[in-house]
């Protein structure tokens, strides 16, 4: 049976892709950001996930204003890196997992989540930057990816509660897939940032850290934060954090944190990153615990 | 942190709150409709050949789109706050930033009251504080209370 073994949260600022692609990832500006992902890169090598269900939003790349799907799932064989106006990122194609994706899509629809099915699309920095952050610069991505795109651009986006519930339904769907697969769910975007208007540049460290705290343990209070709270407290683009709640919802009642990183700024944005383990008696061992010890000893 | 049950939100109250944030234009359906062609125009700049044609004659290229005169003028002037007022969305307008070869953060800074070096320094120092930036109504109420005190 397939099972969800971990959740990963990460910002997906496009500039991180540029830093990675042009080898600036260890300079004075980007070094402290990327250093916070070193632990995770080693941990991922030990975890060897088969598939990532990658929750992200498209930034006017695959979707324009013609069609605005609230929740869309990629069921294709592969996805190319989108040209976002300066040429596509020189990263490997993203390989899909159509069997699992279609299984999840069908299960979700039966579970009353009316998904949009995407068979062909390009994927932008929202999806490829998290892959770079977690896997570095390989010739091919080390696992398959099921893209799960959420509208957080045109209002209203889905509520945090709905995102959490979608995560719960994704978990159910994954657990009924007969193949033995190690599946991670990643929630991307955020944290506080505002890219528009006179209030641009807003950052709220205190609120972001409360949000990070809220992902750990058995509380589900984050699912009830209304949109207006994200907008007022974390900037107009901070709303992307609802996508983290799909990931959190997919981890079941309780989680524990394996790793946490927070840094300001990256361009206009606060970088947040967290690695979570579901903690509901799944009996998941501390795979990667050697890494934890090794890095702690450094 | 507010954690209300958002399941029974009234759409009118919801939209009214969206307009209560200082210095912010939330991309509501109303703005999305108003700016539809402006955003689709910006989207067309994803293609090299369109970028070339636009750069050769911006006005002529925009005349091919059903944009309002105000929208064309705001785009020509790169007045991004005005573009937001006319229904533009920053992820779409970003296609114009990159056509101009302008880094994202620098383009964003043009919407604030700061020059880019000052904006960048603010970000390096931890960004803009949300204090006093949460609610137009709350700011007005605070100002009125202060006036009464005097």
TrEMBL record, chain A:
<dbReference type="InterPro" id="IPR004183">
    <property type="entry name" value="Xdiol_dOase_suB"/>
</dbReference>
<dbReference type="Pfam" id="PF02900">
    <property type="entry name" value="LigB"/>
</dbReference>
<dbReference type="GO" id="GO:0008198">
    <property type="term" value="F:ferrous iron binding"/>
</dbReference>
<keyword id="KW-0223">Dioxygenase</keyword>
<protein>
    <submittedName>
        <fullName>Protocatechuate 3,4-dioxygenase</fullName>
    </submittedName>
</protein>
<feature type="domain" description="Extradiol ring-cleavage dioxygenase class III enzyme subunit B">
    <location>
        <begin position="9"/>
        <end position="271"/>
    </location>
</feature>
<dbReference type="GO" id="GO:0016702">
    <property type="term" value="F:oxidoreductase activity, acting on single donors with incorporation of molecular oxygen, incorporation of two atoms of oxygen"/>
</dbReference>
<keyword id="KW-0560">Oxidoreductase</keyword>
Automatic annotation (TrEMBL), chain B:
<dbReference type="Pfam" id="PF07746">
    <property type="entry name" value="LigA"/>
</dbReference>
<dbReference type="GO" id="GO:0018579">
    <property type="term" value="F:protocatechuate 4,5-dioxygenase activity"/>
</dbReference>
<dbReference type="InterPro" id="IPR011986">
    <property type="entry name" value="Xdiol_dOase_LigA"/>
</dbReference>
<feature type="region of interest" description="Disordered">
    <location>
        <begin position="130"/>
        <end position="150"/>
    </location>
</feature>
<feature type="domain" description="Extradiol ring-cleavage dioxygenase LigAB LigA subunit">
    <location>
        <begin position="38"/>
        <end position="123"/>
    </location>
</feature>
<dbReference type="InterPro" id="IPR036622">
    <property type="entry name" value="LigA_sf"/>
</dbReference>
<dbReference type="InterPro" id="IPR014159">
    <property type="entry name" value="PCA_LigA"/>
</dbReference>
<keyword id="KW-0223">Dioxygenase</keyword>
<protein>
    <submittedName>
        <fullName>Protocatechuate 4,5-dioxygenase subunit alpha</fullName>
        <ecNumber>1.13.11.8</ecNumber>
    </submittedName>
</protein>
<keyword id="KW-0560">Oxidoreductase</keyword>
